[in-house]
Amino acid sequence: MKKTAFAIPLALGSAAGLFAQTATPPSPTAALEASVKAAQSAGDNAWMLTSCALVLMMTGPGLALFYGGLVRKKNVLATMMQSFTLMALSTVIWAIVGYSLSFGEGSPFIGDLRYLMLAGVGADPMPDYAATIPHQTWMMFQLMFAIITPALITGAFAERMKFSAMVLFMTLWSLLVYFPMAHMVWGKGGLLNAFLGGSIPCFDFAGGTVVHITSGVSALVCAIYMGKRHGYGSEPMKPHSLVLSFIGACMLWVGWFGFNAGSALSAGSLASAAFVTTHFGAAAAALGWSLMEWFHSKATVLGAISGAVAGLVVITPASGFVTPGAALIMGFVGGIVCYFMVVKVKAMFGYDDSLDAFGVHGAGGTLGALLTGVFATRAVNGAIAEGKGGLIDGNGGQILNQAIGVAIAWGIAIVGTLVILKICDIVCGGVRVSTQEEIEGLDLSQHGEEGYSLEG
User: Model-level pTM greater than 0.85?
Assistant: First the structure.
C-alpha cells in the first residue's frame, strides 16, 4: 500500500514534467507584437497626457492673459478670474455628471448616467473612442474642452456681468448646451457623429461646432441681452495691456497643438497631419487679417494676434481631415472673414461683444465647419469611408451635412442661452452689475482687489 501511495504522485509529477517539456513556448513574433503594442500604448498615452496639459494651458494662462489684457485695467482681475474659476467649476461638474451626459450611450441627443461620478472610468481603454490609452486619459482630454468652451463666452460680457450670475450661467450652460452638443457630435450614437452611428454624419475633428459655434453664438446672445457697457461708443475702451494679450495669444497658438493634434487620440501620422494644418491655418489667417488692416491703415499687433486665433478656430473642425494646402486657404479666408465680422459687422449692428467672441469664434467656427465639407479628404484621414469625404472627394452632399450640424449648434446655443439668462436674471436679481459697480470696476466691486498696485 505504501509503495502504491508513493507511486501515484511520482507518476503525476513525471507526467507534469513531460507536459512542461513539450508545451509550446511563445513564438518570437507574438512576443514582438506584444512588445510593440505595449510601446504604442505608452507612447500614445504620453502624447495624450501632454495634450491634456496643453489644452488646459489654453484656458489658464492663455485665454486668461489674452482676455485680461484686452479689458480696461479696472477689470483685469475679474476677467482673468472668470477663466480660472471655470477651470475648477467645469472640472467638478464634469466629474459628477458631465462626462456621462457627453459620452454615455443614451439617446442621439444626450448620454445616460452610466459614468455618474466617473463610475467605471479606469485604466482599461475605450475601444469605441481611444483603443490605446486608458479610459481616464480619454476622459481628462475631453474635460479640457469642457473647460475652455464656456470660458470663451466670457469675452462677450466682459466688464459687466455679476460674478454670481457668471457661475450660475456657466453651470446651466454646460448642462443644457455643451454636454448635449458634445454627445451629438462625438458620443457613440450621437445624432451628428460621423463615425459612431450618427444619422447625420458631420465632420468635426476638434470642436468647430461643439466648441466654437456654441460658445461664439452664445456670446452674441449674451452681448445683445445684457446691452452695451456704460459709456460704450462715447468713451475710449482700449485694451489696457496688449503685452499681456500678445503673450496669451502665443500660448493659445502653442496650446492649440494639443487641442487639434491631440484629437487624433494617438501619437501617429494623423496627429502629425493635424499639427501641420493647425500651424498653417493660424499663420495664413494672421497674414490675412493683417493684410486687411494694412489696406485700410496700419497692421496692428492686436489685429495680428486676433487673426491667428481666428485661423486656429477656422481650422479646428477640419484639422484632421484636410491637406496643408487646404489649411492655408481656409486660414487666409478665415482671417479676412473674421476681420470683416469684427470691424464692419459689429459696427453695422452696434452690439457690444466686448472681446469679439462672436466675431472670432462664432463666425470662424461656422466658416470652418462649412469649409470642412469642401476640403475633407480620405487621403488625409482613412477613417472617412470611400466616397464620403468632402466636395473635393466628389461628395458635395457633405456640405449639406455640415450646414445641418451648424444650424443645430446655432439653434441650441441661441435657445439655451436665452433660457439660461432668464433663469439667472430671476435667481441672481439681474445678471448685470449696477452702473456704479461697473464704473468702479469689477475688480473692486466683485472681488475687493486691484490688479495693479501703483502706490507712490
Answer: yes
Put residue 197 in one of left, alpha, beta given phi > 0 → left and psi -120 to 50 → alpha: left
Contact call for residues 88 and 64 (beta carbons, < 8 A): no
Mark residue 104 as left, alpha or beta (left: phi above 0; alpha: psi -120 to 50; beta: remaining).
beta
Confidence of residue 435 (pLDDT cuts 50, 70, 90): very high
- What CA–CA distance (Å, rounded) separates 420 from 431? 11
- Treating both helix axes as pointing N-terminal to C-terminal, what angle do 135-153 and 76-93 enclose, rounded to 10 degrees? 140
C-alpha cell at 224: 445683445
DSSP 43-79: HHHHHHHHHHHHHHHIIIIIIHHHHHHHS-GGGHHHH
Is residue 432 helix, strand or coil?
Answer: strand
pLDDT value at 23 more than 90: no
Give the pLDDT of residue 62: 98
Q: 126 has which bridge partners? A: 130
- Note the pLDDT of residue 271: 98
DSSP states of 371-406: HHHHH--TTT-TTSPTT-S-GGGT-THHHHHHHHHH
CA-wise closest residue to 374 among 391, 386, 388: 391
**Residue located via cell numbers 439667472:** 424
Q: Which residues pair with 134 in a beta bridge?
A: 125
For residue range 185-211, what is the model confidence (pLDDT) as tens digits? 999 999 999 999 999 999 999 999 999
- Strand duo 130-134 + 125-126: pairing: antiparallel
50-107+135-447: CATH, from 3.40.50.720, 1.20.210.10, 1.25.40.10, 1.10.3430.10: 1.10.3430.10
Pure H helices in 125-241: 135-153, 163-173, 179-186, 214-226
Q: Which three cell numbers stand for residue 326?
A: 487646404
pLDDT digits (tens, 9 = 90+) for 41-54: 899 999 999 999 99
- pLDDT confidence of residue 121: 97
Whole-number pLDDT of residue 13: 45
- For cell 480619454, the residue is 138
